[in-house]
Specification:
Mean pLDDT: 94
Order of helices and strands: HEHEHEHEEHHHHHHHHEEHHEEEEE
Distance between the termini: 45 Å
Largest sheet: 5 strands, parallel
Low-confidence stretches: none
Radius of gyration: 22 Å
Structural class: alpha/beta
Length: about 400
Amino acid sequence: MDYADIQPLLNVYHRKLAATTLDFKRYLYKQINWDVRLLGIKGARGVGKTTMLLQYIKDNFDNVDDAFYVSLDNLWFQNHDVTELVEFLYTHGINHLFFDEVHKYGNWTNLIKNLYDNYPDLKLIYTGSAMLSIDNSKTDLSRRQTLYTLHGLSFREYLEYEGVISLPPISLEQLLKEHTSYAMDVVSTIKVLKFFDQYLDNGYYPYYKEAGNDYSLRISEVAQLVLDSDIPAVEESITYSTRQKIKKLLMVVAENVPLELNINKLSASLGATRDSTLKMLYLLDKAGLLNLLTDKAKDYKHLTGPKKIYLNNTNLMKALGSNLSKGTQWETFFANQTGTVATLTMPKKGDFLVEGKYLFEVGGARKTFDQIADVPDSYLAVDNVEIGNGKRIPLWLFGCLY
């Protein structure tokens, strides 16, 4: 192997790097410990994992060819081997490697382990599907690596990405105590509800800017790729028949959100067993397409029937043509944004129990405490309100948690 052999990969690397800007960085960028030898970043398709790798290279290498970026789903690997590529790069002085779409490479966990063990001063950073279960794989990488998860744009990030305003994230505890002063600072500068309405339709996936009017179509295409490509790559035992059932399941949920689950009825409509239906639901949850609300903290090792099912985010709701009622949209937003930083479960009263302690009812500006009046630590998350008071908190503020 020589540089002529890897020129196609270099061309792609340089082209992508040239198109990468440093104007806006995702919330996770500053949280990552980039100095570890083995670093993994997983997340749903389209949330910005590739851009973050390229930004790091552009930020930290005066000579970008001291590092090497490659996507492992590149057709080049149909007749070339990754280990041969790494050996060539390493012996030519390159020991910072960035692997994209790692789950697309067969037996990738064993590959990563061997590279880590065989090249003691190699630094390897990779991205992969949100479905990757590193600690459950046959080759356990959990002892060797640091793993992060990147989520879609928060409402706070969307405002910065749009160049509207740059806000610090607020913790859940701060939000509960200081939401009035935080909101006052924001609304003194911008008409926040206008931007919030825009975000609910077009703002969760960073590619909304380049997609323009085709954004909803792009979301549908990305969802299709997850179903046809990512899920089979991660769950190799899944058959074509099962993939078709997963697609049907997604659309059943999309047309009925929020779906209060009757697992037996749903299984019968799919022609599947109860256990296989549960597995499909949790796969869609891990893939970033659904959001399952259970009565206990979600456990992907011990699957229990969810009490309520949402699509992952409000942009997906619009793209998949699901129930676009305002109430469902509000609940979906709250579950998506708050669930990124805290544990959500289904309470006996109200809509969401957060961290096993804080009870929330989600609704419009006229929402009252009637349903949860006698419950300690209960709050309202209300839409169409710029500034709240007491335990009545504007819904948009829950988009500032990360």
